[in-house]
């Protein structure tokens, strides 16, 4: 027994062999992570590690070695520390491969917060792989915990060695976690050869290695401080646009219509893509509405995912493009640190609206329960508290039809205006097994089954939307709807993605609907927009009183109708970089200063009526 317990008690020659073994283990694990990053290409892995980027590979291996030694010290066992390390790295590499496959995007440190979303993970990777991973992880944690418990029986000398190793590696890992600090030595070592590519995280990971990319996305300020940021500058901006709306609001209506936001999961038109032809239009019901009202294409930040980021933009009217690239998910990285954030929710709450969020799924996804509380929603209706929970055939998610019924029930309260924010789930992946049969058939370059079932999914979604807008005609209070798809589904083959330009893979459908048909742009059906413009555009289209912030966005939209990192639409053409004239630059800079003031600055603008409008 003592022999088993005193695992650190080895002869010097044995220690040397153990350290050599650990070093080899770390190098192999780093190669494995790179293999998963490079889509299982051994050729690219070995070229990266031993030809193109050897220095960065060694630096990444050093960090992994610290992590391994930390686990060994914590467990008091080289064997069990290495066992848990192997399981951790194995799962991390697999998760990165899966995310790259489905979303063409690597794993970020913040993604690890999603590890407790068991239901969604099981649905995404399949029941059998999920159960296998859970079993392996459970076994690893059990034996690791058992080792920690038994380590109390180590000799005093071994305990000193163990605790010293634990403290040293822990402090070094904490130092590593501040990778993005200005004077971090590890970051400086990477900077000797690293070419960081902030506008493309996929290329960033390829060029600096999985470990380099992962470290680059550790904690960082949401935005860098603009050179001219000051209280005076912010006051000048807020005064300028607040003065402007005093004139423009003179002719606006003071009515309080119901406002409904509907973010439809993965809603898009497969027919927009070269390489996909269909036997009948799955979005017929959608277009029956869209051709009668203000509608067009929305530029999504992501392909195949990133729902919460699109939702963040739509509610706050702040752009992800302005953030530092490491700010990958504001819902989990930024908002939890804030006590309040201006949004359409806070604006309407200040005008005596009842604000309700509906998501036919659980409350923990992207920390929505906490995020919605910070936004100021009065209530959050989830799958557990919904009245209507019907599903379509074998679809595991609550249907859009049920979700719309939930919204209509809220609108029965005619005493107060309602703001309802609905995030649907019906059309979430996976698609292949939802519907045994489908009326839709595609001719596509790969993954035909998933595309056909997806078309059936969006057809049901279109049908539900059409019925919803029909039902809204019976609502007495004027009711405005903004409907959009958050991103394309990750079902298209590499061939299809190659045959379509990047912009097309990031365009989804959107429309704005008025049950009284009063939108000023109802004859426009080819609009192009970014989601952070939704609220100001809706207010302008509906002739509702604007705020200074929405006035700024409205003027910016006229100059730059849509933009995200690497996608900029202005002067009726797309470009990968942002080149602006003086008018455009001034508007863009004003917007950037206001966003910085709220997310990283001193909140000077919150002390004005800039986000509230003229009272």
From TrEMBL:
GO cellular component, one term: plasma membrane
One Pfam family in the UniProt entry: Sulfatase
Database matches in CDD domains: LTA_synthase
Primary site of residence: membrane
Domain of life: Bacteria
InterPro entries: Alkaline_phosphatase_core_sf, OpgB/LTA_synthase_biosynth, Sulfatase_N
Pathway per the UniProt entry: Cell wall biogenesis; lipoteichoic acid biosynthesis
Membrane topology listed for this record: Multi-pass membrane protein
TM regions (residue ranges): 12-33, 53-71, 78-97, 128-148, 160-177
Residue ranges annotated for the Sulfatase N-terminal domain, each copy included: 257-541
Record's subcellular location: Cell membrane
Keywords for the protein's UniProt record, in alphabetical order: Cell membrane, Membrane, Transmembrane, Transmembrane helix
The protein's name in its UniProt record: Sulfatase N-terminal domain-containing protein
Organism: Enterococcus plantarum
């Amino acid at each position: 027994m003592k022999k088993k317990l005193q695992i650190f008690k080895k002869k010097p020659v044995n220690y040397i062999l153990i350290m050599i073994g650990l070093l080899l283990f770390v190098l192999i694990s780093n190669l494995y992570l790179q293999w998963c990053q490079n889509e299982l290409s051994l050729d690219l892995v070995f070229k990266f590690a031993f030809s193109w980027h050897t220095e960065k590979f060694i630096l990444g291996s050093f960090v992994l070695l610290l992590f391994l030694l930390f686990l060994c010290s914590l467990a008091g066992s080289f064997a069990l520390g290495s066992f848990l390390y192997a399981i951790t790295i194995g799962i991390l590499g697999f998760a990165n491969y899966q995310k790259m496959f489905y979303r063409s995007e690597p794993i970020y440190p913040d993604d690890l917060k999603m590890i407790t979303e068991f239901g969604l993970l099981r649905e995404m990777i399949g029941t059998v792989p999920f159960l296998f991973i859970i079993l392996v992880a459970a076994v690893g944690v059990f034996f690791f915990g058992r080792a920690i418990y038994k380590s109390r029986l180590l000799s005093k000398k071994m305990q000193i060695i163990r605790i010293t190793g634990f403290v040293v590696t822990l402090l070094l890992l904490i130092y590593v976690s501040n990778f993005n600090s200005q004077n971090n030595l590890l970051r400086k070592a990477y900077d000797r050869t690293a070419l960081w590519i902030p506008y493309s995280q996929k290329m960033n990971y390829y060029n600096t290695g999985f470990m380099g990319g992962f470290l680059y996305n550790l904690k960082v300020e949401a935005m860098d401080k603009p050179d001219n940021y000051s209280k005076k500058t912010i006051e000048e901006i807020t005064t300028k646009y607040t003065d402007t709306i005093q004139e423009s609001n003179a002719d606006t209506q003071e009515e309080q219509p119901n406002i409904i936001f509907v973010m439809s999961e993965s809603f898009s038109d497969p027919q927009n893509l070269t390489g996909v032809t269909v036997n009948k239009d799955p979005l017929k019901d959608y277009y029956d509405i869209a051709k009668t009202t203000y509608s067009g294409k929305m530029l999504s930040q992501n392909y195949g995912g990133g729902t919460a980021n699109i939702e963040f933009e739509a509610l706050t009217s702040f752009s992800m493009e302005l953030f530092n690239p490491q700010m990958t998910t504001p819902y989990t990285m930024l908002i939890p640190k804030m006590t309040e954030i201006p949004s359409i929710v806070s604006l309407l709450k200040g005008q005596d609206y009842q604000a309700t969020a509906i998501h036919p799924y659980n409350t923990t996804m992207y920390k929505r329960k906490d995020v919605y509380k910070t936004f100021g929603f009065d209530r959050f209706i989830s799958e557990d508290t919904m009245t209507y929970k019907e599903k379509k055939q074998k679809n595991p998610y609550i249907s859009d039809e049920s979700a719309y019924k939930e919204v209509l029930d809220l609108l029965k309260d005619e005493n107060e205006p309602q703001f309802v924010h609905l995030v649907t789930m019906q059309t979430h992946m996976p698609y292949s097994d939802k519907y045994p049969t489908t009326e839709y058939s595609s001719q596509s370059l790969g993954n035909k089954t998933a595309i056909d079932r997806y078309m059936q999914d969006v057809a049901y979604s279109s049908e539900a939307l059409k019925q919803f807008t029909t039902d809204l005609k019976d609502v007495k209070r004027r009711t405005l709807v903004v409907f959009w798809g958050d991103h394309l589904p990750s079902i298209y083959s590499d061939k299809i993605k190659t045959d379509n330009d990047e912009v097309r893979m990031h365009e989804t459908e959107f429309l704005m609907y008025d049950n009284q048909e009063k939108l000023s742009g109802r004859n426009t059906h080819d609009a192009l927009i970014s989601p952070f413009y939704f609220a100001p555009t809706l207010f302008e289209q509906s002739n509702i009183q604007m705020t200074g912030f929405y006035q700024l966005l409205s003027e910016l939209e006229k100059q730059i109708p849509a933009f995200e990192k690497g996608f900029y639409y202005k002067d009726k053409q797309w470009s990968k970089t942002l080149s602006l004239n003086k008018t455009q630059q001034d508007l863009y800079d004003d917007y950037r200063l206001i966003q910085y003031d709220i997310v990283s600055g001193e909140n000077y603008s919150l002390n004005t009526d800039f986000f509230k409008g003229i009272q």
